[in-house]
Amino acid sequence: MYLETKDVVKRYAHHLALNKVSISVPRGTVFGLLGPNGAGKTTLIRIITRITAPDSGEVLLEGRPSRAEDVYRIGYLPEERGLYKKMKVGEQAMYLAQLRGLSKQDAHRELMIWFKRFDIMSWYNRKVEELSKGMQQKVQFISTVIHNPDLLIFDEPFSGFDPVNADIVKNEMLRLKEEGKTIILSTHNMESVEALCDNIALIHQSEVVLQGRVFDIRNEHRPGIFRFRLYGNVFDLEHPSFTLLSKEPYHEFIDLRIRKAEGITSNELAKLIFDRYEVVSFDEELPTMNDVFIRTVTKEAHS
Fold this sequence. Notes:
The protein is of the alpha/beta class.
């Protein structure tokens, strides 16, 4: 495991921000850190990046306790971010790159690569205040990755981006993952979680309430609902193996949503329908990560 937190506790005055939080982030993956506002995600990130220290528990990097010098191996894009408005874009980016340990020569070389990749070379000598929010986001993204860190932490990286530029950033994240980088993504955008994340941890009320591979979690939360499209416009079957949730005509077809009963396999349900009707298509509805998120948080809130 590349990064682990073990039983991390953090309290502020009378508020328990993290209560024995343990997560495991595999190397070379995108790890989604999810949770409602105020759940403790940002506090955990600040502990991982050594901005603050836990009251108890530990952070392990490659199996050993993290050290002060490990911050140079981390690129962190916080949710609350900003640039010096009066500085020129290139000057600002050079300054931030050198803060992260790059020489002036290396910083300039890397910036040329990234500015061309993001198609913002024409803005190099313009003042930051002339940039749109999305353009500023690109500069901040570049400043986060410029020193080629092993661990990248992005807190709500897509805010301020239009769909086209959001896709550019997503593709860059996937490319960095392919290069072997480990990425922690904190976001409320569940579509991004499904598109990018291999594993997730869901924090609610200061505790981890769900953790694992995205595929496994969606699979475990299957509601047992199937969609069938039948040829014709008649479906009058009643059977204890299923509950009919909806029946909608569609041109010369009829679309069904069916929930199978407990103890009935998917194959048994399919055979029941296939034996009696001409089936054009069928599939199982898998829950989205948004469905899982809402269901888990709602359940925890009422437990």
